[in-house]
Amino acid sequence: MVKNTTMKTDKKQSVPAPTPRITKESIKNFAKQNYTQNLIEFEKDYLIIKYLKGQLNKFINNKKINKRLVLNYIITLNNVFVSPYVVVKILFLECDKEVWGVLATFLKFLNLLPERIYLGRRVYINTEAIIDRGLLESLNEL
Q1: Is residue 3 part of a domain?
Q2: CB 8 within 8 A of CB 17
Q3: Which residues, including other chains, have CB under 8 Å from residue 26's CB and lie 6 or more apart?
Q4: Domain assignment of residue 72, yes or no
Q5: Where does residue 65 fall: left (phi above 0), alpha (psi -120 to 50 degrees), or beta otherwise?
Q6: Which of 21, 82, 91, 127 has the most CB atoms within 10 Å of its CB?
Q7: Is residue 53 part of a domain?
Q8: Is residue 28 situated within a structural domain?
Q9: What's the domain range around 93?
Q10: Could you tell me if 64 and 58 are in contact, meaning their C-beta atoms sit under 8 angstroms apart?
Q11: What are the Cα distances from residue 142, in Å, to 54, 67, 100?
Q12: How many domains does the chain have?
């Protein structure tokens, strides 16, 4: 019996469950396939991920972060890819595990975070378990 494995999103109808073949090495191709703008702009928009990673690492290292800038980066990425699910998948594959909790917290604040994220090879992230509650409270005060 085949199980319906679609995830509902606010932005689009539904997104099929992730394919297990997407890896850290093939994530850029996955991103290109799900990019909604002109491909000429892709590299510029994909650089936002690098900038976002820098901000998240900055938080891990010294607990200082430009929260509004991080939110802006995530919102921009959400606007140029086909669905929030794609953005979440790309970000979790691109970012180091050390920043997943911080990333998940920002995504939860923006209502973009699913309960579980499948990263391939039977790797699931229970997103509720990695939320930074202190950071979430400070985001709610913005």
Answers
A1: no
A2: no
A3: none
A4: yes
A5: beta
A6: 91
A7: yes
A8: yes
A9: 22-140
A10: yes
A11: 21, 9, 21
A12: 1
Bridge partners of 35, per DSSP, are: 81
Close Cβ partners of 126 (under 8 Å, ≥ 6 residues apart):
115, 116
- Residue in 123, 130, 82, 81 with CA at minimum distance from that of residue 107: 130
C-alpha R_g of the chain: 15
pTM (two decimals): 0.77
Q: Which pair of tokens denotes residue 139?
A: 């985001």
pLDDT, block means (10 residues), the chain with 142 residues: 43 48 77 89 92 92 89 95 90 89 93 78 65 88 87
The DSSP secondary structure of the chain, one letter per residue, reads: -----EEE-SSSSEEEPPPTT--TTTHHHHHHHTB-S-GGGHHHHHHHHHHHHHHHHHHHHHS---HHHHHHHHHHHHHHBS-HHHHHHHHHHHS-GGGHHHHHHHHHHTT---SEEE-STT-EEEGGGG--HHHHHHHHT-
